Amino acid sequence: MTFSLLISFGLILFAYLLGSIPTGYLVALVLKGIDIREYGSGSTGATNVLRTVGKGAALTVLLIDMLKGILAVASVKLFFIYGGGEILPIQWQDWLIAIASLLAVLGHSKSIWLKFSGGKSAAISLGILLTMNPFLGLGTLGVFVIVLSISKIVSLSSISAAIAVNILMWLLQPTAPYIVFAIIAASYVIIRHRSNIDRILSGKEPRIGQTA
């Protein structure tokens, strides 16, 4: 049992450290020599990189942050596929995926390398959802794209997608671990956007093409 717990802790720690890789901060530092936390919204996410550094840099950050989420879930799945079931009870798999995913999301927004600052966890959450269930991820992405095409506001699109996750999870992956993940992760993403919500309500939130 002790060994099993150590393995579980290792997978969860790996997910947190993976999520903590400060992609946006590193890209902005390399390309412009700036600390992106001192510009725009102060976030290290792709949206602030887009406004501060440019489209190519933002796309790079978006894809890498999604990849972090994909790897966080895939590492647990691959562990069980290649013999993990002989070490840990197979019933642990979904709970480990859910917990590792939450820690990856937390790591992205509270990076140990940036004194516990970071992004708003939307991109890494999308990577996680795509790996949990491709239809779940694509459905969430669809909501994001539709809202973005109408509003031109990235933060509103991210919030709408976070709300949609809970509905889609009940329809596509209605198991306790995943539902718990959806509720906590979506709530956390929305809380991380609370300053954006204030600006949306006051009509001051920048749209695509505008500066923060």
Structural commentary:
The chain is mostly helical. Helices cover 73% and strands 0% of the residues. The chain has one domain (1-202). It has helices spanning 2-20, 23-32, 46-52, 55-81, 92-109, 122-132, 134-151, 154-172, 176-192, 194-202. Helix 4 (55-81) runs parallel beside helix 6 (122-132), helix 6 (122-132) packs antiparallel against helix 7 (134-151) and helix 7 runs antiparallel to helix 8 (154-172). Its EC number is 2.3.1.275.
Strand content: under 5%
**Could you list the spans in which at least 5 consecutive residues all have pLDDT below 50?**
none
The coarse overall form would be globular
The total beta strand count reads: 0
The largest pleated sheet is described as: none
Helix amount: over 70%
Question: How many domain modules?
Answer: 1
What's this model, at a glance?
This protein has 212 residues and is mainly α.
How would you summarize the topology of this molecule?
Blueprint: H1 2-20, H2 23-32, H3 46-52, H4 55-81, H5 92-109, H6 122-132, H7 134-151, H8 154-172, H9 176-192, H10 194-202
Helix pairs in contact: 1-4, 1-5, 2-4, 3-4, 4-5, 4-6, 5-6, 5-9, 6-7, 7-8, 8-9
Quickly list its features.
212 residues; mainly alpha; 10 helices; globular; lipid biosynthesis; transmembrane helix
